[in-house]
Amino acid sequence: IIEERAANPAAGDENRPIGYGRIQRKEDPRFVRGKGHYVDDIVLPGMLHGAILRSPVAHARLVSIDTSAALAHPGVVAVITGQDLLGLKLAWAPTLSADVQAVLATDKVRFQGQEVAFVIAEDRYAARDALELIEVDYDVLPPVIDVRTALDPGSPVIRDDIEGRTDNHIFDWEAGNAAETDAVFAAADVVVTQEMVYPRVHPAPMETCGAVADFEPIEGALTLYETSQAPHAHRTLFAIVSGIPEHKIRIVSPDIGGGFGNKVGIYPGYILAVVGSIVTGRPVKWMEDRSENLMSTSFARDYIMQGEIAATKDGKILAVRSTVLADHGAFNATAQPSKYPAGFFHIFTGSYDLQAAHCKVTGVYTNKAPGGVAYACSFRVTEAVYLVERLVDMLARKLEMDPAELRLKNLIKPEQFPYKNKTGWEYDSGNYEQALRKSMQMAGYDDLRREQREKRARGELMGIGISFFTETVGAGPRKHMDIVGLGMADGAELRIHPTGKAVVRISVQSQGQGHETTFAQIVAEELGIPPEDIDVVHGDTDQTPFGLGTYGSRSTPVSGAAVALVARKVREKAKFIAAAMLETRPEDLEWEKGRWFVKGDPSVGRTMAEIAMGAHGTLTLPEGIDGNLDAEVTYDPPNLTFPFGAYICVVDVDPGTGHVKVRRFIAVDDCGTRINPMIIEGQVHGGLTDGVGMALMQFIEFDKEGNNLGGTFMDYLIPTALEVPDWETGFTVTPSPHHPIGAKGIGESATVGSPPAIVNAVVDALAPFGITHMDMPCTPARVWEAMQGRPRPP
Length: 794
Ligand code: CDP
What we know:
Layout: H1 2-7, E1 12-13, E2 16-17, H2 28-32, E3 48-54, E4 60-66, H3 68-72, E5 76-81, H4 82-87, E6 92-94, E7 100-102, E8 108-109, E9 115-121, H5 124-131, E10 135-140, E11 169-176, H6 178-187, E12 190-201, E13 210-216, E14 221-226, H7 231-242, E15 249-252, H8 268-280, E16 284-287, H9 290-295, E17 300-311, E18 317-327, E19 356-364, H10 381-399, H11 403-410, E20 419-420, E21 426-427, H12 432-443, H13 445-457, E22 461-470, E23 482-483, E24 486-487, E25 490-496, E26 502-506, H14 515-527, E27 534-537, H15 555-582, E28 589-592, E29 595-598, E30 601-607, H16 608-616, E31 630-635, E32 644-653, E33 660-670, H17 677-697, E34 728-731, H18 749-765, H19 780-787
The protein binds cytidine-5'-diphosphate (CDP).
Cytidine-5'-diphosphate binds near residues 554, 673, 743, 745 and 746.
């Protein structure tokens, strides 16, 4: 290795690769020393603090608001109500789903925790104390909590602010072919049907949402520090909503303490901080607390899915169909590409070669918080994978086949890629059988089944659950995808300084995924400049090119591609400059990582650093080549990428308490070319832990009055190291054929793939009781209850 490195230092070695490989994160020195810089760390001269008064009830008419006592409270500078915002035409703001959302309630409150008034004070405590002094008279209305009855004719109409609205229906959307699917079902030997609830959960990032707004009245310029996963899209939307010209708005998204979809939307608090700064002439900070985060800023899932799977009696899966009731809360604020109101749910055909598929999704208003964010998933892929992977397991049970064998029989084969599924996707690449066999081998699948048989004979409850998932990530091609009219492309700019050090500016925004490392590695791989010599700039609209941001695992598929291409553009330009320096023709040069050299004479060449100096020096440059080593691109992906994986979960269930222990978890992931295996494993570990939370512990429940019962971490449980096993990870590599470096996303695979594996394992453990399905979360109480009144296993 040492010799190799000496021969070509730009290749690096295994421990210090210049390019892809397991290098430590460049951002960690500041995080491990407590030197991260988050929104709440920002303190500006004269800064005020805002606090939001929230509705205690889920549905009520606003009769009156009296703010006089709050205004008289020491330290209070201003109190803003919905009526004040009406005057500024800011009481309602557009959502990401062509609806409007109240910034502060004017007519009614529509969910518990809705924003009613905004107090601005000299400090956070005065602002919070003054909230108690605001008198609000609510005329309470019957709430709509159960999505199943929300469309009943007598149901109270939540959105009477929308002219002509007489019910709580938002949309119907479908994909696939209903008639074809019905025909296949009618002719099938076996059909399995099940209703499944993917409960309302919350991304719950460690850092809650917040903003510091600083409006400068002389220039009419706004600087907004925000917890945002998409600074550029936010800037455009702020310009449209506020009327402040876009070039006068700067959005800065500093270090972000986890996003998981929670920081995609524009929440009333952000807008109120801006209004507060305009009204008071001073910077205003708003930071929500944990309960505000859990109660108001977005939720995820909340799908009631009727699923059906059809097969022949010898286990050939023929078709799937599904109807879904989607609870979108009081305002349709879900973050999805415009064309897809149910996100990418139509990937529910899974990893199987089917004859037909059809799904229909109905969106419904209820008196709950709005949001519908893609919590660590690419727009409803999580729900889709859960549905199909539970159905396949149920089918295996019905056919008395091993669930691994059933999957192996039906997985799409390598030679079928690119594979067009029945709902319109084109899966780019895959070798599914290889991944499943690898996971089975890592798990020792046959031995596990043997152990299970022995344990069952002794009355012990052990379960083995499999899931095989295909995701669709990297949204997306401009011709198909936009968010509020903005095409989902991303830019990258690369500048090589005269001494050969580089800065790459990207439009996506890390929330902990390690972009400062992996995006430097992409440039390093393409140019042979060591990653430590490449600065990655992101999260500041004044410093970076336009792009749609980080969510749905789109950073590597879209922005990663932009970075590879911009580096190649620089490399190409470097060739012309090197040719001039070497007094030869560009076509006579050959590239090896880090330098251009003369074909046939490797000793004569120029390194990237030498070429950079040449570009900025006194050399006479070739016609059409300007004196720098910079480039920029905007990347419009031709297709999404389709990561996949095979997961196996082993659980033990305590028959006395119903407690589920995840004893082992084997995860084999394929995200194509792997940039940094250490970061990939970290992403997988986090996602698997999330999966344990969703499968076993978490849901945002409401009582009949619409009280949110999951508003604290005492009620909404976050898994810790105690609840999870030592993860056993493996991988296969099937590059994406259309991505410049063959990479697919990885950030969300494990959150998507793990819940069905865990639930399949729990249901498998409970099979001796005749249990065939259980809704998440499989809490001890639910598991215990399911076992009661059923014949005990031997
Ligand atoms: O959009 P987001 O960053 O959340 O997701 P991602 O593109 O899946 O990337 C998550 C992290 O894993 C980033 O640091 C990626 O660069 C890294 N990654 C990788 O090293 N190799 C891949 N094939 C995919 C992602």
